[in-house]
Each structure stands twice: as structure tokens, then as C-alpha cells.
Write a structure and sequence with these properties.
transport; two-stranded antiparallel sheet; about 375 residues; Outer membrane porin, OprD family; signal; OM_porin_bac; mainly beta; single chain
Length: about 375
């Protein structure tokens, strides 16, 4: 509540601006709606049957944002999940990310925009470096707090996000997770994204999870084309410093080279995690700050190691079909090693089924320690409207 009150005061202090709707009623009734129907099938096998099971989940997303009235908008977002086919093994194996029945109001915010700067207060999805609402599972993660994003400076985005509550995917006991207080009092991230150098995106970000750790992130991403050939070079670096002196600080860096011609796209990547254990973000799963050598399902290894990855995919433009494969090799500082093999495909329907997409991902890890081996299959059917 303290964060909400301070943010509302900040909004009022920013003054008024020209408005799109002539009345509050018009602003509320002329807003935008969007939604999605989702059907997911997950099959998981960790440690050769130590944790093994499958699940079918059905869900619906509904999002609404009002039209602007003196620069103000309100927004709401609703998510639901229903496990229609999960035995005891499936409930246990997927309890932490997929087995959660129920519904949650994931967005309920008030925003104010002045020029190209927007302040948003309340429950919201956040997509910023170091703080991400991962949507890889049926239920998307959300936050409660405030975000301020400004694009008033040409080719530059300035951002800050401060949150004190977090909604995960499930509660681990068969229900969708509700908003809960953080381990500490707060989490925040701030930084800048700059595109003033042609074909280049520079990202600088810093964040902290109270009573846990703080981290910084730097990235340079260059992409260009020569005739029908696309190519790119990227570099990333991050440091994680833990509040607990018994936890060893860590850092990582990564390098990636992209290449594409026609429907073929490929990349090779290298990464090294040094000292202790690094983090991919301040709060939330997945997102923009991921190792270039990461897999799709397991999301990446951030313990001390040396990693290599290669990915090749092909897009059949006329069909709306994409198929690809990825291989990752990891050498741990503990002298163990592991490799990942991935195959994936996406298909976008056309005509009467426009808006419907289907995807498959199969991923397996072969580790020197059998307990760390896993195989997992994701099948997703999504209709957006």
C-alpha cells in the first residue's frame, strides 16, 4: 500500500495532458480486449524415473486496457488453469510449474502517460532486463509494484521497476500461486537500452532482491544484412553478489554469432560461468537475460562451467512452419560434463484458423550423474483473439 500511495502522488504531480477520450465512460467502454485459449501437454522424466509424470492443462487468458483519459488508463488481466488429466505422478513431477488449478487476477493497474513516459502502478506483467514475467508455462508470472519507462530521449529507453509482491505459476500444492510477499521487503531493477549506434542495441541494467543478492548486466547486440544474408554478433556480461557471505559470488560472459540466408537461420555461442553461481535475473523466470548457450526447457546452467551451443532452424514461409534443432555441451568445474539435445517446431495456422498456433519442444540432458538426466516434451496449442 505504501508503494501504491507514493506512486499515485507521483502521478498527480505530473499534471495533465491532452486526452484521447472525451469522457470517463468513453475511455472505459472503448478500451482494447485480447485473450487466449490454451491447451498444454507436458511429459517429464527426471533421474530415470525418480520424478516422472505427465499433465494436460487447459486455460484462458483475458486482458483489458481502457482508452486514455487525461493520460490515465486502467488495465486488468485474468488467468486460469485446469489440469484435466494428471495422475499422482504427474501432479508430483509438475507441481512447481504446471499443476495448479484455479484462477488469478494477474493484472490490475493504473497507468499515466506524459509524452513518451509511462508510470504504471499495481499488478502487472513486467518485461525488463533482470525482471521478467515468464510465459513459458500455462500461467504467466506477475508482479505488484510500480514501473516507470521513458522513451523521451531519442533511441533510448530508461526504465525502473520496484515491486514488493510476486505471483508465481503454482503454489506447489495443486493451486495457482497468488500474490505473495517477497523474502525481503522489495526487489527492483533499473537501467537503459540504447539504439543510437546503427544496427546495435546496448543494454545496461542493475537490480537487487532484498536480503538475497544484487546483480548487474551488460550486453551489446549487433545485427545487419548484406543482400539476402543476415548476420549478427552479440556479447554479454553479468555479475551476481550475494548478501550471505557463505554463498560464493558468481559472474558469466557469453559470445554469440548469428547467420541467416533464406529460410535458414543458425547461431553458435560460447559462455563461461566463473567463481560461484550466477543468476539470470532479480526475480521471475526466463526473459531477456539468459545465457546464449541456454536450452529452451531447462533455461540454462548458471553454476561454474564452460559451455558451447549450436542451433540451426528453417522457416517454411509459405507454410507458416518452423523446425529446428539445438546442441549444447557443458563442462563443469567439478569435472562432470553434460550435453543437451533439443528439437522444436512451431506452426501458425491460416485462413479460418488464423490466430491458432501449435508448437512442440523435445529436450533431453545427458549428465555424468544419472540423477541429473532428464527428458521432457512440451506440446502447446494456443488460440489468440
Amino acid at each position: 500500500m505504501k508503494t501504491l500511495k507514493l506512486s499515485i502522488v507521483a502521478i498527480m504531480a505530473m499534471g495533465t495532458c491532452s486526452f484521447a477520450s472525451e469522457s470517463l465512460q468513453e475511455a472505459l467502454t472503448s478500451g482494447t480486449y485480447e485473450g487466449a485459449l490454451r491447451a498444454y501437454y507436458f511429459d517429464r522424466d527426471i533421474g530415470h524415473g525418480t520424478s516422472k509424470g505427465s499433465i494436460i492443462n487447459l486455460g484462458i487468458d483475458l486482458d483489458y486496457e481502457s482508452n486514455s483519459f487525461y493520460g490515465f488508463k486502467v488495465g486488468f488481466g485474468f488467468q486460469s488453469s485446469n489440469a484435466v488429466n494428471a495422475d499422482d505422478d504427474g501432479k508430483k513431477a509438475l507441481s512447481w510449474d504446471m499443476y495448479g488449478n484455479g484462477a488469478v487476477l494477474s493484472q490490475a493497474y493504473l497507468s499515466y502517460t506524459l509524452s513518451k513516459t509511462t508510470l504504471k502502478v499495481g499488478r502487472q506483467y513486467i518485461h525488463l532486463p533482470l525482471m521478467q514475467s515468464s510465459g513459458s508455462r500455462l500461467i504467466r508470472q506477475s508482479y505488484e509494484g510500480s514501473t516507470l519507462i521513458s522513451n523521451d530521449i531519442p533511441d533510448t529507453t530508461l526504465f525502473v521497476a520496484y515491486v514488493n509482491k510476486y505471483q508465481n505459476r503454482t503454489d506447489g500444492a495443486g493451486k495457482i500461486a497468488d500474490f505473495a510477499d517477497l523474502t525481503g521487503d522489495y526487489a527492483y531493477t533499473t537501467g537503459v537500452i540504447n539504439k543510437s549506434i546503427p544496427n546495435t542495441i546496448l543494454t545496461v541494467a542493475y537490480g537487487e532482491l532484498d536480503e538475497s543478492y544484487d546483480m548487474s548486466y551488460l550486453e551489446a547486440n549487433y545485427k545487419n544484412k548484406y543482400n539476402d544474408i543476415s548476420y549478427g554478433l552479440s556479447a554479454q556480461y553479468s555479475e551476481t553478489d550475494y548478501d550471505n557471505s557463505n554463498t560464493k559470488d558468481g559472474n558469466f560472459y557469453g559470445l554469440k554469432a548469428d547467420f541467416g540466408i533464406g529460410g535458414v537461420n543458425a547461431y553458435v555461442a560460447y559462455a563461461e560461468v566463473n567463481d560461484g553461481t550466477a543468476q539470470w535475473g532479480v526475480l521471475g523466470g526466463g526473459g531477456k537475460v539468459v545465457l546464449y548457450t541456454s536450452s529452451i526447457i531447462d533455461a540454462g546452467i548458471y553454476s561454474e562451467s564452460e559451455q558451447y551451443a549450436i542451433d540451426v532452424n528453417y522457416t517454411f514461409q509459405d507454410l507458416g512452419l518452423k523446425v529446428g534443432a539445438r546442441y549444447i555441451d557443458i563442462d563443469f568445474a567439478t569435472n562432470y560434463s553434460a550435453d543437451y539435445k533439443l528439437a522444436y517446431t512451431d506452426y501458425k495456422f491460416k485462413g479460418a484458423l488464423k490466430g491458432l498456433t501449435a508448437s512442440l519442444v523435445y529436450e533431453e540432458e545427458n549428465h555424468d550423474l544419472d540423477a541429473n538426466d532428464f527428458k521432457e516434451l512440451w506440446a502447446k496449442l494456443i488460440y489468440k483473439f
